[in-house]
Specification:
Layout: H1 7-14, H2 28-39, H3 48-67, E1 69-73, E2 88-92, E3 107-111, E4 120-127, E5 132-135, E6 142-144, E7 147-149, E8 166-169, E9 174-178, E10 200-201, E11 205-214, E12 220-221
Antiparallel strand pairs: 1-2, 2-11, 3-4, 3-11, 4-9, 5-6, 5-8, 6-7, 9-10, 11-12
Length: 240
């Protein structure tokens, strides 16, 4: 028997089967790198996760500023003593959405273009649509719908309610606005002869100033004063 002729055959049959060996590593690194990219959030974004996180934060702040809250810096002393020059307030842009409307005593930020000037302003609502606002009674107080209003809780010390007399009926859909520092405020009183009679359309109100957030030592909430709580509703036949 030619035994030497059988050895090559045995050698070939005794080699481990290719089917039992692990798959080649030639595609392994590429497969692992793809899995790593998918498993690490932001690894596919230029700059990595840090840049992506910063962009998402900026997008969130932009959405909040556009639709919910807007920072506003007090530009003048017209709302002293409560709001000082340089104070930062947060304006609640949702305060008058979903059917709500400005109320007497609210501090509002509004677009004064075409009425006060080409800028945003901050003032206090003294009269709403239909209100009859008069200054002043025998004791020097403003009257709204025949009821005197005690403004001593927020009026600047030493100021009178107004050095300029007025007697107005606020048109529907508009607001009569005054600053708390009356002697330093250009407000509805100063524009009674202008287009719109110094009355700001409710639609031009950006929102209600609800919080002072800077400086921290002056941070506080801005509540509606109770001075207007007893003012009766406007007469149904009132008009501007």
């Amino acid at each position: 028997m030619d035994t030497e002729a059988q050895h090559p055959e045995r050698d070939r049959s005794s080699r481990p089967s290719d089917a039992g060996q692990p798959a080649s590593d030639s595609a392994g690194p590429e497969g692992r790198s793809r899995f790593a990219l998918l498993s690490r959030p932001g690894s596919w974004f230029p700059g990595g996760r840090t840049t992506l996180t910063l962009l998402l934060c900026l997008l969130f702040l932009l959405l909040v500023s556009t639709f919910v809250l807007r920072p506003f810096q007090i530009p003048s002393g017209s709302m002293e003593r409560g709001l000082r020059i340089g104070d930062r307030v947060l304006v609640n842009k949702l305060a008058y959405r979903f059917g709500a409307a400005p109320q007497r005593g609210d501090i509002v930020v509004f677009d004064g273009t075409g009425y006060f000037g080409h800028a945003d302003y901050v003032k206090r609502v003294v009269g709403v649509g239909g209100d009859h606002v008069v200054c002043c009674d025998e004791e020097g107080r403003i009257q709204v719908n025949g009821r005197p209003v005690d403004e001593s809780g927020f009026l600047y010390p030493g100021d009178s309610p107004s050095a300029v007399p007025f007697d107005v009926v606020v048109p529907r859909g508009r607001l009569f606005l005054l600053g708390d520092h009356r002697s330093r405020s250009s407000d509805s009183r100063d524009h009674l002869g202008s287009p719109g009679g110094g009355m700001i359309p409710v639609d031009d109100v950006i929102g209600r100033a609800d919080w002072i957030v800077w400086p921290f030592g002056h941070a506080t909430g801005l509540d509606r004063p109770g001075a207007y709580a007893r003012v009766p509703a406007a007469r149904a036949d009132a008009h501007g």
